[in-house]
Amino acid sequence: MTITETRPESGEVAGRTAEETAGPSGLYRLLGTSDHKTLGRLYIGFSLMLLAGVFTMGALLAVDAVDVEGNPVFGAAIGPASSSYLLGTVFFALWPLLLGLATYVVPLQVGSSTIAYPRAAALALWTWVVTTGVYIASVVFGGAYGGADDEAVALSNVAFGALVLALLLGTLCVIVTIISLRPRGMKLNRVPLFSFSFLAAGSLAMLTWPVVLANVALAQVAQFGPDVVSETYLSGIRWALDVPAVYIVALPALGIIGEVVPVFARRRQAHYGVMLTGLGLFGAFSFGAWAQPAFNIEVQEQLLFAFMAFLVALPLLLLLGGWFGGTLRSGELWWRSPLLLALAAILLLCLGVLTGVLRVLNPVDMAPERAFLAQSSFVVTATAAAAVAGLIYWVPKIYGGLFAEWPARVVVVVFVLGSLLYTVPTGISALLENNLSNPTGPLRALDAIVIVGGLVLTVAVAVSVGAVMNAARRKDGFIPDNLWRASTLEWAVGCPPPPGSFVWDLAPVTSEAPLVDFYEEEEASS
Amino acid sequence: MFTTGSKFFYGLAILGFIAAGFYAVLTASHPEGIWDTLTGEGIIDVLIGPLTLGYKGTVGDQLGFSVLVGFAATCASLGFFHTAFRDADPESVAELVHAETVPVSEPTGLSPWPIVGAFGVAVLLIGWAASEVLFVAGMVALVLVGIEWVVQAWSDRATGDPEVNRTIRNRVMVPIEIPLAIVIGIGVVVLSVSRVLLAVSATAAAIIAIVVATLVLIVAFTLASFPKLRQGIIASALLVAGVIIVGAGIGSALSGERDFETNDSGQEEGMAVVDHVADS
Predict the structure, then answer these.
(1) Residue B187 forms part of a structural domain
(2) Three-class DSSP labels, A198-252
(3) How far apart are the CA of A301 and the nearest CA of chain B, in angstroms?
(4) Which among A23, A224, B123, B225 is most buried, taking Cβ atoms within 10 Å?
């Protein structure tokens, strides 16, 4: 089998988009684009800035918890700050970051020159950007869930609803790309792991987040004032950030790990079907729209909730078996930064799932709110670590330059250190709060460590942004199309891909690793 | 027979019907318990309900059942349309354009409407929370964006030549766009500046009105004096000015109008002067 039919001479414009061959340049090209590569880069840039902001906010919230000399940062505004932080982690930063990677990478992985509904993808991006701005402005004027100002709280509510709608639209474009724009021979069981995980996570998001939207709409239509809107957040929205629905955001992170591990173990992914099944089951068990306190106030104390929190650990074990028992054990490990960060992400996610299990089984009387925060922090930092691993891995493809290894290693060290300082003390404080006679002192000490962790994570994200900008600016001369000798189709095109990406016809795909097939066939014939 | 997209929608439709059936059975009131009902005489009633879409037999929560059946029916319809129109079917596409091989699909070009639509959404949201005028303005903006979007999508596929497509689009839309843009532009500036003038004190309003009028005069004079000025500079200057005016208008609308002094009859002082002049 060959991966390509006759590759055209350079300058061939067969698959070029209309905007790539003609039209104005400059700002209008940026604002009017529907090219998935530009849209993906914009998502990544904006969401990384917001991710740094979210981690800073987490540190500032910990400052209030420590309560240094009675000088809180947020004071009476702790409620809106806390709700904005929690919503910000998933809806303002992490999902957009993953969506940005997916918008850029998924069409290339499935051999398509474009994303499905490209203008809808552009609408989704800009609506997300604009509504994020409106939400932040509303918070400044006394809004957000828990805020006191009528109009500002209403504005936060509708801005958040529109933001979720925009993310769903962007997600839909990626899902339809995977379903409809695959090349010949690429059946669903041959779709790359990142694309498959995004298909599963996106489908779950399409099923779950409209319920959040319905609650937002109910709060808005009822017009009972800020108290009722804030109550709606607690009973009708926060479940989307809790077990099991929060794992939706971790699913694409598992997909990224699934891309990185076999490449840096230099062997095919063992038991590919099992890995797909693991990802699918992890997604299925992440469905959490049923676990709303609004309709069942005791849902978190019921057996089904505990069972589901426990059940989600099983597909994770399946995936861990595939990576550690199969690919990593028998591969020749290449200890580059993406692999190190991927392993850190696995560790953090395992701790998150473990915290979830301990939380619902509660053998040691964990403090509920702190246990929720600990689990949320583990899942958030695991997903962020995997997303940054993916960014380092795909940087040559996205920006046409290299993420130099030494700053990448700095990112790894700082990220892992920050994540552990940010998450583990919260977990320990959840264990201690109800089990010490006088927990105030130890809890304040642990919260102080969380402040440091949040700031270190902010630095890690800032260093990542700097390294990415450097890679985009520097252009390291010729970069091989398949720098890492990876197996998926995005590595069959240039770094970055030429206009139109696949300007030649792809040969039918016959396995989940078309490029490895190609190399093996070439080696056999030579 | 079944095309790519149709399989997805048929699958969802089947899932929706199955879910509706389960939901109808599980939410039906069972005084003797669901298990006894399903193994006893009540089984006929409980099964006939969802099978006849509630026409006969028993359906539990009718609202939830209707939502699920509606979802399934919508998906089935979408699936049918995909089958009928042969989505993503290479042979059908080739046949349509009388080609022997499947043509390369031409991805879409630049379009300002997604970002304009996003700002329309923002205006709508702010209006929803704070001001009816802004809500209506946002709605109007979104309707206009929708029309422009549809026309551009149609013209993009009119012929295989992007330049010809652009000409076709301009021939249809420019006679409508230019007068409409002028009306909307004037309307937005008048509305925004009026909100600012109503929000500040009477003295400040007079000063702002004079300054804005002078600025308009200076800018127009400058533009007329330098006819070779680059279009990009003019567009950027107008964009910045537009953002400042609209931003100031929205800010002023949110902060509300100043307190107007009224005379004993409840009439505003300015209006009383106007009445007095009219009487005399």
Answers:
(1) yes
(2) HHHHHHHHHHHHHHHHHHHHHHHHHCCCHHHHHHHHHHHHHHHHCCCCCHHHHHH
(3) 22
(4) B123
- Report if pTM > 0.90: no
Quick one: B165 and B236 in the same domain?
A: yes
Domain check: are B246 and B162 in the same one? yes
In this predicted structure, the answer to whether residue B61 has a pLDDT above a threshold of 90 is no
Q: Is residue B71 part of a domain?
A: yes
Determine the residue type at A457: L
Q: Does the pLDDT of residue A19 top 60, yes or no?
A: no
**Residue A229: CB partners within 8 Å, gap ≥ 6?**
A145, A153, A154, A157, A219, A220
Task: Examine the pLDDT at A3 and tell me if it is beyond 50.
Answer: no
Which residues contact residue B146 at a Cβ distance below 8 angstroms, ignoring those fewer than 6 apart? B117
* Domains held by chain B: number: 2
Residue at B232 is within a domain: yes
B122 located within any domain: no
End-to-end, the C-alpha distance of chain B in Å comes to 85
Most A-contacting residue of B67, B108, B156 (CB-CB within 10 A), to test interface? B108
What is the span of the domain harbouring residue B86? 4-96
What ipTM was predicted for this assembly? Answer: 0.84
Q: What is the pLDDT of residues A328-362, one digit of tens each?
A: 888 888 899 999 999 999 999 999 999 988 888 87
The residue of A114, A123, A125 whose CB has the most chain B CBs within 10 angstroms, and thus the best one to mutate to test that interface, is A123
CA distance B258 to A18: 52
Burial A297-309 (b: 16+ CB within 10 A, else e): eeebeeeebbebb
Helix, strand or coil, per DSSP, at residue B108 = coil
pLDDT given at position A12: 39
- Inform me whether the C-beta atom of residue A133 falls under 8 Å from chain B C-beta atoms: yes
Quick check: A175 contacting B, CB < 8 Å?
Answer: no
Domains and CATH numbers, chain A: 34-525 (1.20.210.10)
| Subunit contact A22:B163, Cβ cutoff 8 A | yes
Q: Write out chain A residues lying below 8 Å of B163, CB-based.
A: 22
Residues linked to residue A361 through DSSP beta bridges, in sequence order: none
Which amino acid is residue A500, in one-letter code? G
Select from B109, B110, B121 the Cβ nearest to the Cβ of A162: B121
Contact (Cβ atoms closer than 8 angstroms) between residue A103 and residue A43:
yes
pLDDT at A13 over 50: no
Using 50, 70 and 90 to split pLDDT, how confident is the model at A224? low
For the ranges A4-13, A75-84, A178-187, B108-117, the lowest mean pLDDT is seen at A4-13
Q: What does the pLDDT read at residue B94?
A: 64
* Distant-in-sequence, close-in-space partners of A384: CB < 8 Å, separation ≥ 6: A51, A93, A94, A97, A415, A419, A457, A461
Q: Quick one: average pLDDT of B131-144?
A: 89
Chain A residues with CB under 8 Å of B118 CB are 123, 126-127, 129-131, 166
Contact between B107 and A162 using a beta-carbon 8 Å cutoff: no
Q: Using alpha carbons, list the distances in angstroms from residue B259 to A20, A253, B122, B265.
A: 55, 56, 29, 16
